[in-house]
Amino acid sequence: MAYLLILAQKKDSITEDEKYILELKKKYSYLSNYIDEVNSMSIEERRGLLTMVGITDTVLSKETIKTLKDNHVSGVILFNYNIVDEEQLKKLTSDLKKYVNKNMLISIDEEGGEVFRIPFDKYKDISAKMIGDSNSIEYAYNIAYNKAKFLKDMGINMILGPLCDVPSNKDSYIYNRSFSTNVEMVSKMVEATIKAQKDAGIISVVKHFPGHGDTAVNSHSEFPIIDKTLEELKNKELIPFQKAIDLGAEMVLVSHIKNKYIDDTLPASMSEKYRKLLEEDMGFKGVIITDDLVMTGKIESTINYGINLTSNIYKNVKEMFRNIEPDIISCAKVLKIMRENT
């Protein structure tokens, strides 16, 4: 599995002139210290900052350590095949921080219900729909907080959630993974969840922007299509995302959805227009992460690569990195999150 930790912006040259750096630091004052650090990095180091990958290990091997370090990878995502028991999981996450990067982003999809990776997570059977059906903000907060504390104890510092999707009906493939079909209820549950995750000290990655609720297909099999204008999205699908952004969610995961009213060529995960929507219209200052780039509905556009980390990670990872075009601000945003939240 491979994820990109921000939608590509205009590529910077590796050596930036002093005036340009000063302009960036003025425009992005909250990133000032990190801009200087990124500017001194090699292109390989910058590429690594923008990459989160899967690994096949349950016990971290020397080969994996070398691959991750050589490519300066900033983050990994864990799956069920990486996890045996509590002791093993703690050792794996500890070793990633000890031998690769003490600030490494270690993430997981641990929604509960249909999607979970940790068999000994005692909250694994509680889905977002069950939480939404409870109509209890307190219950939503408590479940999210306890799950986040558990993940933190396991050495995981980043969760791919909560879902901000608002399914339009029960036929939506994401219906059972969502809090509700009611946008106000979704927003309330998203708010409780993000507050809980912040209180527990874990990074929130809200998903699947701009919303999977009105699609009938899974982007792991083909590109979902949304046939709604931006104004229609703002009146429903984008409301929970705006709530999450206003609460300070650190990351937004952008899906492989296509919408002709926003970009008639590229899916959201590869489109500059969606980045502008998030940053300029919605005020998001955090990191934009793509959905998994190794899906059957794979991306073959701006960043043209595929990698199957369950089989040939070491042969493919360098080819993947060659196609990443890093820019200073994207890298600085990732570095800020790594330093301040891990």
From TrEMBL:
Keywords: Glycosidase, Hydrolase. Residues 43-298 form the Glycoside hydrolase family 3 N-terminal domain. It comes from the Bacteria. One of its GO terms (biological process) is peptidoglycan turnover. The keyword Hydrolase applies. GO terms for molecular function: hydrolase activity, hydrolyzing O-glycosyl compounds. Pfam families: Glyco_hydro_3. InterPro entries: GH, Glyco_hydro_3_N, Glyco_hydro_3_N_sf, NagZ_Beta-hexosaminidase. Belongs to the glycosyl hydrolase 3 family. This is Putative anhydromuramoyl-peptide exo-beta-N-acetylglucosaminidase. It comes from Brachyspira pilosicoli P43/6/78.
